[in-house]
Amino acid sequence: MKVAVLGTGIVGRTLAARLAELGDEVTVGTRDVEATMARTEPDAMGNPPFAEWAHAHPQVTPATFAHAAVDAELVVNATSGNASIAALEAAGRENLAGKVLLDIANPLDYSKGFPPSLSVSNTDSLAEQIQAAFPEAKVVKSLNTMNASLMADPRRLADGDHTVFVSGNDADAKQVVTELLQTFGHTDVIDLGDLSTARGAETVLPIWIRLWGALGVPMFQFKIVR
Amino acid sequence: MKVAVLGTGIVGRTLAARLAELGDEVTVGTRDVEATMARTEPDAMGNPPFAEWAHAHPQVTPATFAHAAVDAELVVNATSGNASIAALEAAGRENLAGKVLLDIANPLDYSKGFPPSLSVSNTDSLAEQIQAAFPEAKVVKSLNTMNASLMADPRRLADGDHTVFVSGNDADAKQVVTELLQTFGHTDVIDLGDLSTARGAETVLPIWIRLWGALGVPMFQFKIVR
After folding, report:
1. Which residues of chain A have a CB within 8 Å of the CB of B220?
2. In a domain, B226, yes or no
3. Cα distance between residue A33 and residue A200, in whole Å
4. Domain count, chain A
5. Which residue among A207, A222, A226 places its CB closest to the CB of B203?
6. Is the ipTM of this complex over 0.90?
7. pLDDT tens digits, residue range A161-199?
8. Choosing a second label site near A180 at 20 to 30 A (CA), which of A58, B24, B148, B185?
9. Strands A117-118 and A108-109
10. Contact A203 B121 (CB under 8 A)
């Protein structure tokens, strides 16, 4: 499958590498390819420069948001939540129309320091805002409730014995995403319902962040015991 | 231990019965005892009238909020979130001073129908509002992330193999609550940190409610796999 991963941070890189490893044809989208490739300093989160990662992953093609999206069958929004709408606009409304848009971003607001709050929450969600802005895309929210390494390879923790959620208005699009999740190794996929249920998935972040603080490591996961 | 459970809904009843079963001296607080005992109709949630429950649990004493709180060593806020501050005011500031106040309420807002949103969230929490209103109480947030029956008797699901969170500013108060949780049967108690971490615990509700919808039953729980 041709997949565009929008976002060159650690989440985008981790998913892109995993998709390529699983045989997908992967393009990583960024606003300005030359500028992204020219950076030689670690990014704001302390990750190595993208070019270094890109050279180590020659099977993944860096491209502009629009070039990444135009031929993609599946588009993954792995940009930071506050930049997502702008990134998707740059990807091009026409390049998203009719496609599955897997939104894994969280609308984290770091403006008041750490821990971040959410810039959208409770009575709305980033996923719904994206769906409203791009009504022809088939938005599915998933994967945002865990560390990037577990998104891509859940068996790294407890042999994958934990839970991932999907929310979306289009049953076929949720099915495409569910199959992708299963390919990654996710075994317990809970369909929360329509896209408004992303309000539930996104408000997991405030406790995720506190758990990270309490446990000292991000390698933990929610399992819904029932 | 003398425990005042404030609130006569299903959560208050379930915890009061469990505490009495475990040997605590339990009073259930309500605004107007006569009025509460005189009700013969099921409550808004369809639970049998309180008097019926009270007659079946003669070891639990109904009392006004203030009478319940005055002699209590531990006060449990099991009122509905939007009524909690008023109920605690009725219990009496002086009757809460210096005591552990276990807040298990959720600030659910049903004004726009079902599913409810939260009336406080993200950048504040009900627990912090209670602490601010009653600075001499030792507020600990816990148990709000699960069904009442699992709060009181976690072994009813998966032999108790799931997680409960505590948040609070007073380490001794958190220890008192942690021991109580363990008495109930909770085996995995995660201390999230100070009371501001209740923002995390309270924003679990939006996904809890959607999971209830998706799974069709409230007998599920979060386990933090790590």
Report:
1. 224-226
2. no
3. 35
4. 1
5. A207
6. yes
7. 999 999 999 999 999 999 999 999 999 999 999 999 999
8. A58
9. antiparallel
10. yes
